[in-house]
Amino acid sequence: MILGQIVQITTATMSMPAFKHLNNDWNAExxxxxxxxxxxxxxxxxxxxxxxxxxxxxxxxxxxLTFDQCSMWRLxxxxxxxxxxxxxxxxxxxxxxxxxxxxxxxxxxxLTPTDWHITAPLHFQQRHFLFYLRDNxxxxxxxEWRFERRIPAE
Length: 154
Description:
Blueprint: E1 18-21, E2 36-40, E3 43-49, E4 62-68, E5 72-76, H1 80-84, E6 100-104, E7 117-118, E8 127-132, E9 137-142, E10 144-148
Antiparallel strand pairs: 1-6, 2-3, 3-4, 4-10, 5-7, 5-9, 6-8, 8-9
């Protein structure tokens, strides 16, 4: 060994995205959100009951997240127990269970699931969204999203 030599050790690391919290003043009902996904072309809608106990919402009030220009979506089976047990690919990285996030930055794991529903080719400018619900996890790649307290007509 030469004195003063600098040795660089490179290890393989997985990149993890940052999580931008999107639902600051609303959330899904924590016990039975009764989520439903509907698809019309490249528009994907996720409807669910709102949480009336922690946020300004009526009991049995439904809401809708609409994702425009959506290329891929999935409703995965990861529940809160699996997330806390580390069985979710973002379980150690996401700040909290039961929240709606946009994932930002590099992510080696984003296409790992095999149960994607594809509506169009994935475009590099699309955004990655993730919503942890009681017994499922909704995930999609879309250009835009919007939240509505009423369910839009289909």
